[in-house]
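Task: sequence design from structure.
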């Protein structure tokens, strides 16, 4: 006869089954905790050229995104660390100025997004500081649009950039308005 305070093997087995998930979670926590700190890679972006004349209802919009040089990498230990992801920017075109038709030349790919926008994926995965990608968009304008009337009607914004700290490194120029580290109007 067992005493009432004795623990049966069945009770111990139930206890082990209930505690197993907690043990699994505790084991996975250190791997999660060692993931990189957000904001570790410094990037900059700016328009690549000034306003060009609109030719045959095509406006030339181009920009540069750069994984900034080592002397601007202020938050990672190894300042020559390759960046592990691609960067995605969105160019939103004013519908009163642009028809939404475009052609793209440059690295990566561009696809039409919603609301008269173009989503451009720039290949940065595996690239080191100092690497840059220049993108070029030929956007179809409505009849009668001039370079002056198209000025600041394209909004360029970085929209996907894991673990990036954006910083304004290139100086402001006359081709940008409302500039922030993540966006500008061209």
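Answer:
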């Amino acid at each position: 006869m067992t005493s009432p305070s004795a623990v049966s093997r069945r009770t111990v087995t139930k206890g082990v089954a209930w505690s197993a998930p907690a043990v699994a979670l505790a084991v996975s926590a250190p791997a999660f905790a060692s993931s990189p700190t957000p904001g570790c890679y410094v990037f900059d972006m700016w328009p690549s050229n000034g306003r060009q004349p609109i030719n045959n209802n095509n406006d030339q919009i181009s920009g540069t995104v750069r994984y900034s040089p080592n002397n601007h990498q202020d938050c990672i230990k190894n300042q020559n660390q390759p960046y592990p992801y691609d960067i995605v920017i969105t160019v939103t075109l004013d519908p009163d100025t642009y028809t939404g038709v475009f052609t793209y030349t440059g690295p990566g790919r561009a696809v039409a997004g919603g609301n008269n926008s173009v989503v451009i994926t720039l290949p940065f995965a595996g690239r080191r500081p100092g690497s840059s990608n220049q993108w070029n968009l030929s956007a179809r304008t409505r009849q009668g649009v001039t370079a002056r009337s198209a000025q600041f009607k394209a909004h360029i914004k970085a929209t996907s950039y894991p673990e990036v700290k954006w910083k304004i490194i290139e100086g402001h120029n006359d081709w940008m308005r409302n500039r922030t580290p993540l966006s500008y109007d061209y």
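Strands lie at 41-47, 58-67, 87-93, 98-105, 109-113, 117-122, 132-141, 154-160, 164-166, 183-185.
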